[in-house]
């Protein structure tokens, strides 16, 4: 056998071993003189016949695919009519024959689903790949001359012979501002996130990237009543498609409208919820009440601070990059709980970005003072509004200043997405100046959160203010934070998480809804709330957005956790990146004070936890965490996890 292929087989299998949590059922690889494809499978559809890679009729083309195509059955029938011969009943094979029949652009205009896939076409010696519309499934790439590495998780790149692991120093400051990495380049220098809604071809060392989908905003002329009916129809259709599987499908359930609407439409047998020992943060009771009302089989668990701090390093290991969103913690235990009972779970991600659920979209609509002036302000010429905005910004603070300013200025001048969290009107995260102030000089730069959005604001400059902000959150917060943690944390437990709101048909409808229907002076997600009343009590539909509340403030005021974090902050490597005295002072001030700096402390704590795992003690990290989760191993031992 060709020794080069032997080396490829060894390398690709070593890389696959690092992500076996993503596919505990089986593995497979394809190698030749030019390419090596590897795959770990979590069996969802065609349990016995869908092993990958899958080949076309003459084995001249091969595919590996992560995700699900929800409308694969109808496309399969079209392809059979066109003469294609199928050897499996899987959605994977539909993508391969669809590429042969329609080409990449044609195929991607037909599918509905979440995916990251690669096709090797040996006839033209070209590798093709694509990432889904919203970036539900992760896809990374690294190019070194003629060599290209592509994968679902960065940790697999670290197992590739010759890959040089180096920290991307530029990413640290924007991470502190956003609590996640919002750059295209990851924390690992040279490794990039492949953009959502795009596909690529790679041949002779040249990578060409092509966009096939993006959100666009052209308002429809439907009445409000017609809009509500259309939302109901689209959600019902999407949930039905997301329920297609050859394994049990459950659902996450919190007290919020997003998951409760999806769950009530799905009518699953089993639903799951998580809470904390600190009863101040308790979504479980209300979720339990809804489950009882709907006759769902309800499973719940509670998390203690001791458990959270014990498992937090493992969470950050699976994230690949540091993510300081505290909701990582409850999501870890929620997916762990669900995996004991189901292989697939539905969740409510994407509703806020599509149906205008974030409070800061409407910050300028809730002030009684501003309501009197809003109509007149909006009629002013753009140039005059801009001058007035700059004047208001220079004034001393007064009640309503923010509301006046945001009614006059363009969103591109003031919007910083979901990166700023306010507690008693004081920002609790790092400004650009704050971040530079605690970093060593080599880590400082001029990046600001708003600057990272400039290019995307240009694309939607003609849309109204709310839709501009929705577009930014869709392309930043959603894809780089919300969906990253949803995929990485669920797949760490070998659980497939499906998100029915993030269907292209649902999105195209949502993006065409007039902003006045999406939100008003009383509610965010107004049209969605009205639509949900078809399956939810009105009192439930009108619940305010809470997110995933986590008792970080209480934890950081607990002496044992404070001491644990301080021990980390005091380690010698910390001073290489941060002004160590300042981060220790930040921690102490928060502990002895009112806790208003807790998100800053948590953001630094998260980064240092992650950095220690990947750059200080990586050998021990791999030994400790490179495995499938115990609950998955237990299912295998009991014969309850299908091996194909």
TrEMBL record:
Source superkingdom: Bacteria
CC per GO annotation: cytosol
Domain Glutamine amidotransferase type-2: residue ranges: 1-205
Residues at which L-glutamine binds: 91
Binding site for ATP: 274, 347-348
The keyword Lipoprotein is annotated on this UniProt entry: no
Annotated metabolic or biological route of this protein: Amino-acid biosynthesis; L-asparagine biosynthesis; L-asparagine from L-aspartate (L-Gln route): step 1/1
Gene3D superfamilies xrefs: Glutamine Phosphoribosylpyrophosphate, subunit 1, domain 1, HUPs
EC number(s) on file: 6.3.5.4
Sorted UniProt keywords: Amino-acid biosynthesis, Asparagine biosynthesis, ATP-binding, Glutamine amidotransferase, Nucleotide-binding
Keyword Amino-acid biosynthesis in annotation: yes
CDD domains per the UniProt record, alphabetical: Asn_synthase_B_C, AsnB
Catalytic reactions on record: L-aspartate + L-glutamine + ATP + H2O = L-asparagine + L-glutamate + AMP + diphosphate + H(+)
SUPFAM superfamilies listed in its UniProt record: Adenine nucleotide alpha hydrolases-like, N-terminal nucleophile aminohydrolases (Ntn hydrolases)
Pfam families, alphabetized: Asn_synthase (PF00733), GATase_7 (PF13537)
Name of the top EC class for this enzyme: ligase
One Gene Ontology molecular-function label: asparagine synthase (glutamine-hydrolyzing) activity
Biological process per Gene Ontology, one example term: asparagine biosynthetic process
Important for beta-aspartyl-AMP intermediate formation (site feature) positions: 349
NCBIfam families assigned: asn_synth_AEB (TIGR01536)
UniProt xrefs under PANTHER family: ASPARAGINE SYNTHETASE (PTHR43284:SF1), ASPARAGINE SYNTHETASE (GLUTAMINE-HYDROLYZING) (PTHR43284)
Family the UniProt entry places it in: Belongs to the asparagine synthetase family.
Name of the protein: asparagine synthase (glutamine-hydrolyzing)
Lineage: Bacteria, Bacillati, Bacillota, Bacilli, Lactobacillales
